[in-house]
Amino acid sequence: MKEDNLIRLVIDDTKYQTTVTKKYLSRKKYTPIDPDIIITTIPGSIIDIFVKAGQKIKKGDSLFILEAMKMKNEVKSARNGIIKEIFVSRFSQVAKGQILLRFEKE
Amino acid sequence: MAWIDKFLDFFKRSEKATPQKDSKAIAKQLAMGKMYARDRVNYLLDDDTFQETDLFVEHTGKDFGLDKKYLPADGVITGTGTMSGYPIGIFAQDFTVAGGSLGLMHARKITKIMDLAIKNGMPLIGINDSGGARIQEGVNSLAGYGEIFYRNTLASGVIPQISVILGPCAGGAVYSPALTDFVFVVDKISKMFITGPEVIKTVLGEEITMEDLGGARVQTEITGNAHFFAESEVECFEQIKELMSYIPWNNQKKAEPSTPKLPKPVFDVEKVIPAEPTTPYDIRNIIKSIFDDSKFLEIQEGWAANIVIGFARLNGDTVGVVGNQPLVLAGVLDVDSSDKAARFIRYCDAFNIPLITFVDLPGYLPGVDQEHAGVIRHGAKLLYSYSEASVPKLTVILRKAYGGGYIAMCSRHLGADFVFAWPSAEIAVMGPEGAANIIFKAEISASEDPDATRKEKVKEYTEKFANPYVAARNGHIDAVINPNETRKYLIHSLKVSGSKQEAKPFRKHGVPPF
């Protein structure tokens, strides 16, 4: 917080000279959610896959079993669509935020 | 048994319950750079005033070999003493006894002293240095934590509760400090987290050290869980004593007044504040220029630094100070700064400490991250706590007071008793640039020279609205004052509103936007 590393912060079209916090600098840039992909929200391993590429899927259909935090989590589809590609195979380890599946564009 | 034998027995038992200072466990504690629990207690209290309770309490564990173990004082030192001559309750977990682990009787020693503190209207200081629940005692240990949390909540707003983290404080144990008023941490000694590095690594595969996860710096700069950071335990204890000098002993009392002192002449209000509303300055210099002896005890200095909170004295009386900090993020309100100020305002209100607010802010911080983090809900806490507070509320608008930020910073509309503005104040819906771009949008875009027209319109708006007189004309502020007379105005206003009474509709309690 020294006055010699001032930056400009724009609020309502006015440019203010000020310093910024570490937290402000490390904030994540917003990226819109891609409705065509399904990503993991926890790391774990895929112990079962119920679908194939090219298959037509209805909202609520079971897609995978993701074992994580000692639980067998059922991954269901949140939409209708045709599967374009599956990126994981049975027993593969997955990280948080990894893409599991992509739908054909609607 | 003869008297002499009874005495010898008493000495023997006392000695067994108080481990000798040359013991291995204590040597280990000292080698970690930590003080021994009893020394911590004695350092904090006035000399020779510690009166111990429950030295002979023993644990009731029966399983996993615990029944064969003797744990001196069951791992926690409890009692009463005085600080600056006034009584306080205190407990200190002793890491040298079973890692300071908490079992049922250990917890009951703590709750006994808490009950005593509540009943007698005295502050409670808790020193946390514990590995966590005493697993061998099972659910009894959890019961102990629960009984402490319950009393922390009962005591909240009744007596001051201070938590000092001088070792690990992990898992459920962190919730007792979280429920108290002020949390003190020491660099490299304090560690607070709900789930530790090992669990995080197993479950999420993320690797992090204890220090980076929940060390003293993290808790005072990133999370805002702690209020005061110190380099050493001794510095931490001095900070606690200083804080205690500002606050009243319970919610029925006012803080002890001190001898009034003038601010130091080196701080000159007019020299500190730049005329240009977009140029920053350190609000703390303004605060120091107004209050007694130019002293200001800042709270949560390292977190949400775009707002400044803390205690000062005005003509001898303790006041709570809130001020926007133009030096950081232009002094905007955001999620963290709203949380920080709102909780402090509620503390002051609960303990009869008048609030003085200094306003200089451009509004709220724009950003997807802010909106998605719930800046609506968090920002509302500030409105709620200012509106709810019934202590004297005095506001000084220094420069910018724009839009929702103007309302939120203890405006007349939220119940301020007195609102003053400096001649440099700009009380408006937004800054001239933004306002001109909206009001004169058509004219600017139709102009042959849009930039020239914009400049002209900004100037027009500035002349008309960028001043305190529109608000003064409508009675939204009480006076435009000479900055050099701010202290005089505040002292008088506090005299006037010092014993104000306001009738409020009956309710059990409100529902603040937690």
Helix content of chain B: 25-40%
* CATH topology value of one domain in chain A: OB fold (Dihydrolipoamide Acetyltransferase, E2P)
The value of Rg of chain A in angstroms is 21 Å
Q: Would you tell me the structural class of the helices and strands of chain A?
A: mainly beta
Number of distinct helices of chain B: 21
Structural class designation of chain B:
alpha/beta
Task: Output the radius of gyration of chain B.
Answer: 27 Å
N/C terminus separation of chain B: 62 Å
> CATH first level of one domain in chain A: which class?
Mainly Beta
- Strand count of chain B: 17
Q: Explain this structure to me?
A:
Chain A has 106 residues and is mainly beta. Helix content of chain A is 4%, strand content 44%. Chain A is built from 1 helix and 10 strands; from the N terminus they run ββαββββββββ. In chain A, the strands form 3 sheets. Chain A has a 4-stranded antiparallel β-sheet with strand order 3-10-8-5, with no helix packed on it. A 4-stranded antiparallel β-sheet of chain A has the order 7-6-4-9, with no helix packed on it. The N and C termini of chain A lie far apart (50 Å). Chain B has 514 residues and is of the alpha/beta class. Chain B folds into 2 domains: 19-246, 2-enoyl-CoA Hydratase, Chain A, domain 1 (Alpha-Beta Complex), CATH 3.90.226.10; 269-431 and 466-497, 2-enoyl-CoA Hydratase, Chain A, domain 1. Chain B has helices at 3-17, 24-31, 37-44, 104-120, 139-155, 175-179, 197-204, 210-214, 216-221, 233-246, 269-272, 283-290, 335-350, 368-372, 375-388, 403-408, 432-439, 441-446, 450-465, 469-473, 486-497, and strands spanning 51-53, 76-83, 86-93, 124-128, 161-165, 168-170, 182-186, 191-193, 228-230, 297-299, 307-314, 317-324, 355-361, 393-402, 418-421, 426-428, 479-480. In chain B, strands 10, 11, 12, 13, 14, 15, 16 and 17 form an 8-stranded mixed β-sheet that branches. The longest helix of chain B has 17 residues, at 104-120. The mean pLDDT of chain B is 94. The chains are: A mainly beta (106), B alpha/beta (514). The A-B interface holds A 1, 3, 6, 9, 11-24, 27-28, 30, 42-43, 68-69, 95-96 and B 203-205, 221-222, 278-280, 282, 304-306, 326-332, 336, 362-363, 365-369, 372, 402-403, 430-435, 437.
